[in-house]
Amino acid sequence: MRAAVQHEIGQDKLDVLDDVEAVGFGPGRVRIRVRATGLCHSDLSAMSGVLPQPAPFVPGHEGAGEITEVGEGVTGLKPGDRVVVCWLPACGACPACKRGQTELCLAGFMNAGTPNFRRSGQDVFGFAGTGTFAEEIVVDAGCAVPIPDDVPFDIAALIGCGVTTGLGAALNTADVQAGSSVAVIGCGGVGISAIQGARLKGAAEIVAVDPVASRREAALRFGATTAVAPDGLADAKQSVTAGEGFDYVFEVVGRSATARTAYENTRRGGTLVVVGAGAMDDFLQLNMFELFFDEKRILPSMYGGGDVLRSYQRTVALWRAGRIDLEGLITHRVPLSGINEALDQMRTGTALRTCIEI
Question: At the N or C end, where does the chain have fewer CB atoms within 10 A?
Fold first, then answer.
């Protein structure tokens, strides 16, 4: 089986090998033939060491495919079913799940410490317990969420992470109010999805902030009313809010510097939503007086901040109704053999989402 493997943390290229085996099949597990997977910035963060991940490993966590085999005790799934890969499945029994905060369930993270693959007698892990840069994966049945037949694999893959994260940040976490002002810092696939979510909620002004001109142009197509480079944010704040600051600012980069910028551009009493996944040693500094005096809400948004399965269903319904554009997010397509080309497209910002067709 072919898979793209990173041998050591810090390498910037993946090695596409044809002697990798998906392991771990048994009771409660399913085998999935991956058909499409998106490249998410979190994959790059795991490769560079920003996000913790044991190596060697197969990146990828935003995938879709079809069930080829189900283990003993698995119900509701059968060979031939089309599924989206959920990298953060809910166990349904932990305190977070019982409170209805299934996005905070740690069951999926426990899977990250179990090897998903084997090569030449060596264990190989899958990023986020999945590893979708492979022709086949074996995962817990809860990681395989059935999708309707009319949802193409490439669209389903996006729903598996980036779209759910960005839309959910606006719809669930922030609950953007109609007529409000919004700024989105970082306009890749997740940021564009946050823009679409803010538009759906009726935001009057949506300012997209990104250093890459093509991403700013794309943001305008997806619902932003203004798009500026980072050095134009101050002027946009002045023209849109008369200098007061935005009602909602979404940080979709995952760095303390941009989070600080987002905080400073949020109005007093407004809401900063932290969507980007950053490093454990990157600290956001706020002084206690401003924290008290400004009364700004700081809301982290994990996987869209809501029930993942309901979020998937909502996204499909919105896509079918033409209320959100998912096809337009896919700006590039490459085969698995072209995975390093896709990595370059992500690093340079030339792609919103690259679909790896497997």
Answer: N
Task: List, for residues 8-49, the tens digit of each pLDDT value.
Answer: 999 999 999 999 999 999 999 999 999 999 999 999 999 999
- Give 342-350's long-range contacts (Cβ < 8 A, gap of 24+): 342/39, 343/12, 343/13, 343/14, 343/39, 343/44, 345/39, 346/39, 346/41, 346/44, 346/188, 347/44, 348/212, 349/188, 349/210, 349/211, 349/212, 349/214, 349/215, 350/212, 350/214
Q: Which residues contact 197 (CB under 8 A, 6 or more apart)?
A: 166, 167, 168, 169, 170, 171, 176
What mean pLDDT, rounded, does the chain reach?
A: 95
Answer yes or no: are the C-beta atoms of 22 and 1 closer than 8 Å.
yes
CA-based diameter of the chain, in Å? Answer: 63
Phi then psi for 63, rounded to 5 degrees? -135, 170
Q: Residue 349: is its pLDDT beyond 80?
A: yes
Residues 200 and 323: beta-carbon distance below 8 Å? yes
2 burial type by CB count under 10 A (0-12 exposed, 13-18 middle, 19+ buried)? middle
pLDDT band at 96 (very low <50, low <70, confident <90, very high): very high
Which single residue is written with the structure tokens 């706020």?
A: 286
Q: Above 90 in pLDDT, residue 109?
A: no
Q: Is the pLDDT of residue 111 over 80?
A: no
Which residues, at least 6 apart from 343, have a Cβ–Cβ distance to it below 8 Å?
12, 13, 14, 39, 44
pTM over 0.85: yes
What's the confidence (pLDDT) of residue 275? 97
Strand order in 297-300's β-sheet? Answer: 226-228, 205-209, 181-185, 246-251, 266-274, 297-300
What is the b/e burial string over 221-231, where b = at least 16 CB atoms within 10 angstroms of the residue's CB? ebbbbbbbeee
Q: From residue 58, how far is each of 48, 55, 109 by CA, in Å? A: 13, 8, 16
pLDDT at 85: 97
Place of tokens 């002045």: 238
| Contact (Cβ atoms closer than 8 angstroms) between residue 81 and residue 287 | no
